[in-house]
Structure formats: structure tokens, C-alpha cells
């Protein structure tokens, strides 16, 4: 079953279109990462999903309901972490969790949660004295209080050090494995690569690329590079499936083959080199990384 269904969703701020007709689906029990350039419209999209804003047009369904109309109905099923935490500075960590627990319809164990977000040693520290990363982890604890069916996290690991980030990933994965659906935004491509079952990349209010990581990566060409020594340039090169680009200098030709058929084209090049006794220099064969795709999308202005 789908947790979130979005169709032709549009939203504008005073005539400025921030979300420009997007479609995507978040399936129950998956981790879905919404990636994007600054100002792409990710936070606005999350706020629409959370029911804080009403769409200008198009539709959103969260567990089959319109979130702007059914906020009180959806609240018990959703945990939300905004980009800016709304924590009460004067309360301690443990008081914050207890207050949250008293307001929530879901149950959780404060001590277990303190351990889960590694704040047990800061239990009596006032929020105002917590570091940025500790506040972020406390905010994450509130969003995941009572293990909601759907957890929406806006840049959950911004400001966390690499170890804390990886530990938070583990917690998110565990929640997914226990049945929660997670929608998150992130600027960290390695985060999406490590965590997400599916991703969508937003740019200027639209979704440029979406799918499983394998699908998104497969839609972008892989690259073979090799330096062919000048002495070997008399032998005609093979005909590659992909596109060949070469730059000549006194050492020879630097070949770049962009291809959807990495294995076949690499095989052709290696067979050619073996047949003519050519020693290739600087040989590399790489699949498109999410970071390359991200840069390509960001460059489309
Ligand atoms: N309250 C607002 N009033 C007017 N414009 C806004 C408002 N909030 C956001 N915008 C604009 O809408 C666009 C999308 O903003 P949004 O915060 O959704 O992007 P984002 O993808 O979350 O960006 P970032 O990754 O930088 O947080 C931006 O151009 C932003 O300046």
C-alpha cells in the first residue's frame, strides 16, 4: 500500500511557483529520499504533505487522506522533524521528552529513546545548553516518538558529525525494518545512497529524476577513460556503443567513452589494446554516481 500519493502538485508563494506540478509515490515501508538543489521546493513539498499548507492545485493523499483537511486524523500516524526545531530552551532533555510523551497519543519509553538517540548523558541538560547536533538528535527523538507509521524528516542529519550521522542512519533503517515508512530530504548524496530505497531529485520546483538508485544510475551513462599512446594511434579504434570523445596531445589521445553499455564497450577497448599490444594509460571505468547526476541536474538552468 502507498503511504503518500502526490499528483500534479503545485504551490506558489505570492506568484512565485515553488512546486511546479510534481508527481511521486512513497510506498509503505520504504525509505524515500527527496534530494535537490537549494530552493528546489523540497521543504515546501514536505509542508504540503504535513498538511501545513494547502496545494494551489493537484492532489496529495497521505494514507488515503487529504493532509490539510485530515490533520487531526493523520497526526497520530505521523512523526515530523522540521528544518528548524521548535524546542523549549528552558526544559531539560528528559523534560522535553516527557512533555512530548504527555501530549502524544503514542507511547514510548523515555529511557530507551534517550539511549536510541545517544542523549542519556545529557538527560538533565537544558535544551539551550545542548550543541547543535544534540538538539537535532532530540528533535529526531520527538519525530520518532512512539514509532509512527510515517516519519517525515527535513534534513535530519544537517549539523551532525559523520559518526552521529551514520548512527542516525542505522536508527532510520531499523525503523523501516520494523515497518515505518520514512520520507526524508537531504543534501548528502551519500546519505541517499546509503539509506534510500528510492529517490527523487527536485530542481526548480520539478522532479528531474526519480526511481530506485539503480534505475536513476542506469539512466545516466557510465564513463570509460584511457590514454592511448601516440605510437598506437595508427590502429583504428573499435566502434563503441557509446559516444567517443578524444583529446590529443604529444603523449597520445585521451579517450572518454560515455556509454550505457559499460561492460561491452570496456571489452571492445581491452580487446583492441590486447590485439595491437597497446599499453593503455590512466584506464578507468566508472558508473555515474548520484553526485554526478545531482550536478548535471543542478546545471540545467
Ligand atoms: N515563505 C516563503 N515565502 C516566499 N518564498 C518562499 C517561502 N518559503 C520558500 N520560498 C521560496 O520557495 C522556493 C522553494 O523553497 P524550499 O524551502 O521549499 O526549497 P528547498 O528545496 O527546501 O531548499 P533548501 O534545500 O535550500 O532548504 C525557494 O525559492 C524559496 O526562496
UniProtKB/TrEMBL annotation:
It is a peripheral membrane protein. Residues 4-229 form the ABC transporter domain. Keywords: Antibiotic resistance, ATP-binding, Nucleotide-binding, Transport. Its main location: membrane. It is found in: Cell membrane. InterPro entries: AAA+_ATPase, ABC_transporter-like_ATP-bd, ABC_transporter-like_CS, ABC_transporter_ATP-binding, P-loop_NTPase. It comes from the Bacteria. One of its GO terms (molecular function) is ATP binding. The keyword Transport applies. This is ABC-2 type transport system ATP-binding protein. It comes from Amycolatopsis magusensis.
